[in-house]
Each structure stands twice: as structure tokens, then as C-alpha cells.
UniProtKB/TrEMBL annotation:
<keyword id="KW-0732">Signal</keyword>
<protein>
    <submittedName>
        <fullName>Rhamnose ABC transporter substrate-binding protein</fullName>
    </submittedName>
</protein>
<dbReference type="InterPro" id="IPR050555">
    <property type="entry name" value="Bact_Solute-Bind_Prot2"/>
</dbReference>
<feature type="domain" description="Periplasmic binding protein">
    <location>
        <begin position="62"/>
        <end position="318"/>
    </location>
</feature>
<feature type="compositionally biased region" description="Low complexity">
    <location>
        <begin position="37"/>
        <end position="48"/>
    </location>
</feature>
<dbReference type="InterPro" id="IPR028082">
    <property type="entry name" value="Peripla_BP_I"/>
</dbReference>
<dbReference type="InterPro" id="IPR025997">
    <property type="entry name" value="SBP_2_dom"/>
</dbReference>
<feature type="region of interest" description="Disordered">
    <location>
        <begin position="31"/>
        <end position="52"/>
    </location>
</feature>
<dbReference type="Pfam" id="PF13407">
    <property type="entry name" value="Peripla_BP_4"/>
</dbReference>
<dbReference type="InterPro" id="IPR013459">
    <property type="entry name" value="RhaS"/>
</dbReference>
<feature type="signal peptide">
    <location>
        <begin position="1"/>
        <end position="24"/>
    </location>
</feature>
Length: 361
């Protein structure tokens, strides 16, 4: 089911690494190439993995989402907390109500004081969270990024929902087919610092350079900050600025739902193609009313479940985060750590009117 072949995964991870390094280098908080590279000396990597070590009982895990009022993040974290119960641990979710770059810092500091065994973080910025996360690792608190990565030296693992390159390129491929590879398009993203969206957008731009997209033009990347109202207004703004827009890609569950709500009640309904990443439960009504034909996502419950087991395996000494180590993620089976501590959940699913009713998340 889920594991990509080793060669495919390596290719994706390498390209993704190049993009995230480029992003890190241009980020305003001043990550330098040297500091990014020295980061491969991950905390804990000097320890030896004991693949036969049992999962410790009573592990304390904390999930720190981009923001607590995001329905997608809630699904991921609740599944991770439920998974902790399976192996005799406990989990909790704490976090900010907005996805600003530094909004997670004070939460990390508190979790360090509380001596959690592991912090799982969907980072709002690859660099802004690094100082406190490094402090946590120094104190032997394991750090697992999920959904949205930190710079590589600030966590031991990154649980990626699917290959970043595949997510970015496939969204352009799908939209391209829908609009006959012709016309103006825009992207409605989350925040300007979000590692996951920025990585996907880099791959979208790469895909758009291919000859089949020569008649498609990306006119704007707008940011709705993963806030419903701002995303709604940004969609309205896009349509006012580019009334001949043919398509919008929104690679955020908050953005695509807000954009669909705007379009569904406008003269653009059924004329402007909206694609991107959404949850079936939020998008169902827009598929049924003809606003949206298709969108994609992975299973967020499985992402939380996998992250929880990965954190437990780290905290139990089964793995250290090194490439090639393997661990069992309960009912999902065995996973292998790839380059730069990346573990890939699987392939995204495309949802449309034919299959949407079989999904409930
Ligand atoms: C939003 C968040 C999250 C992203 C999903 C697709 O909920 O931005 O980070 O993975 O969309």
C-alpha cells in the first residue's frame, strides 16, 4: 500500500532537500548554509539504535499543531493521541490559535519545562522554532516534525504525508487537465513561512516550466494565512484582480474550503476551476453543488498515528533518526527512515463525486 520504492523515494527526498535548503537560505531569520549543514549531527544520533527495544510504557507525547483551531490539524493530533493509548502512553495537544511564524515558541518552552518525552510539531516556520527545539533535544526530549518540517537540524524525524514533489507536481497536472492547459492560474496558500506549502509551491513552479504548460500562466501566489476569513477575502481579491482567471490551486485545507465557499456563491461557480488539498468532510458540499470537481489529500488520521509511533520508537531507543532504520507503526506496519530523517506516509488520494462519500474525515 504505502511505501514507495526506494529509488523513487530517494529521488523525491533529494529534490525536496534542495528546495528546503533554498527556502532556508532565503528565509529572513538568517539560517546560513553552514548552520543548515552542521545540522545533520542530530541530537541522539551518537546513541545506538536497538531495534528490539520494547516501546516504553507511560511515554508522554505533546502535539503542537500549526494552530489548534484548524480542523485538519485536529484530526491528525487526535489520531496521534489515540495511538499513544495503544502502546500505554499519553498524548495531548497544545498550540497557538494562529499560524504566525513564532507563535509556537512559548509552547515549546513550556513543554520542555514539563519534561515531555517527545514533542511533535507541525512547524509554522522552518527556523523560528529551532532554538527551543534544539534545547528540547539537548534535554533528551525527542522532536518529530510532521505535516510541516523545521530546518533539518531542529528535529530528529520529519513525518511527511506524501512525497513533496509528487504533491506539488500532481496538483498542477490535475488543474492543467481540467483547464485544457490554457489560461491564467493563481495559488491560494497558507502563511508565507509554511515549510510544507512553500516546498509544494516550488515543485508546482517546476512543473509549470514543462512545455505542456506553455499556455498556462501563474499570475499570483496569495496567502490566506490558514485563516478562514482571510482566505475567503484573498479569493475574492484574486477574482477582482484577474476576472479571466481559469483556475486556483489551494494547497491548504483551510484555503480550499474558504475559496470554495466564495466561488459557490459567486458568478464564477463552475467557471473557475478550484483544485488543491482539502478534507472530504469540509469539501463534500462543494463537490455536490458543482463548485469543485476534484481535490486531493492523504489520510490525516494515519499521519497522526504514524507520527505517534515514530516518536515512541525514538523515545524507546528503537531508532535514532538515522537513514535506513526501521520501526513498526502499529496497524500501519513497518516504515523505513529515508534521507534526512524523512518518513513518508504514502500516496495522496484524489477525491471526486464518485468516491467522496466513502471517506469520513
Ligand atoms: C492545512 C495546513 C496543513 C496542510 C493541510 C493540507 O490544514 O496548512 O499544514 O498540510 O492544509
Amino acid at each position: 500500500m504505502m511505501l514507495r520504492n526506494a529509488a523513487g523515494r530517494r529521488a523525491v527526498a533529494t529534490a525536496a532537500t534542495a528546495v528546503s535548503l533554498a527556502l532556508a537560505l532565503t528565509a529572513c531569520s538568517g539560517t546560513t548554509k553552514d548552520s543548515a549543514e552542521s545540522g545533520s549531527a542530530k541530537a541522539g544520533s551518537s546513541a545506538k539504535a536497538d531495534p528490539d527495544a520494547p516501546l516504553k510504557k507511560g511515554l508522554k507525547l505533546a502535539f503542537l499543531p500549526k494552530q489548534i483551531n484548524n480542523p485538519y490539524e485536529k484530526i491528525v493530533d487526535e489520531a496521534g493521541i489515540a495511538a499513544a493509548k495503544e502502546y500505554g502512553g499519553t498524548g495531548k495537544e497544545v498550540g497557538p490559535s494562529d499560524a504566525n511564524a513564532s507563535s509556537q515558541v512559548s509552547y515549546i518552552n513550556t513543554l520542555i519545562q514539563q519534561r515531555q518525552d517527545a514533542i511533535l510539531i507541525a512547524a509554522n516556520d522552518p527556523n523560528a522554532v529551532c532554538g527551543p527545539l534544539k534545547q528540547a533535544m539537548k534535554k533528551d526530549i525527542k522532536v518529530v516534525a510532521y505535516d510541516s518540517d523545521t530546518a533539518k537540524d531542529c528535529r530528529q524525524l520529519f513525518i511527511n504525508q506524501a512525497g513533496s514533489e509528487e504533491i506539488g507536481r500532481s496538483l498542477v497536472q490535475h488543474l492543467g487537465e481540467q483547464i485544457g492547459h490554457k489560461g491564467k492560474i493563481a495559488i491560494l496558500s497558507a502563511t508565507q513561512n509554511a515549510t510544507n506549502q512553500n516546498t509544494w509551491i516550488e515543485f508546482m513552479k517546476e512543473e509549470l516550466k514543462l512545455p505542456e504548460y506553455k499556455d498556462m500562466e501563474l499570475v499570483k501566489v496569495a496567502y490566506g494565512d490558514d485563516a478562514d476569513q482571510k482566505s475567503f477575502q484573498q479569493t475574492q481579491g484574486l477574482m477582482q484582480a484577474y476576472p479571466d482567471l481559469k483556475g486556483i490551486i489551494s494547497p491548504t485545507t483551510v484555503g480550499i474550503a474558504a475559496a470554495a465557499r466564495y466561488l459557490s456563491d459567486s458568478s464564477y461557480k463552475g467557471k473557475v476551476v478550484l483544485n488543491g488539498l482539502g478534507t472530504p468532510n469540509q469539501m463534500r458540499k462543494y463537490v455536490k453543488d458543482g463548485t469543485v470537481e476534484q481535490f486531493s489529500l492523504w489520510n490525516p488520521q494515519e499521519l497522526g498515528y504514524l507520527g505517534s509511533y515514530a516518536a515512541a520508537a525514538l523515545a524507546s531507543g528503537q531508532i535514532t533518526g538515522a537513514e535506513g532504520e526501521k520501526f513498526k507503526a502499529g496497524k500501519l506496519g513497518e516504515y523505513t527512515i529515508g534521507k534526512d530523517g524523512e518518513v513518508i506516509l504514502g500516496e495522496p488520494t484524489v477525491f471526486d463525486s464518485k468516491n467522496i462519500d466513502s471517506f469520513n474525515f
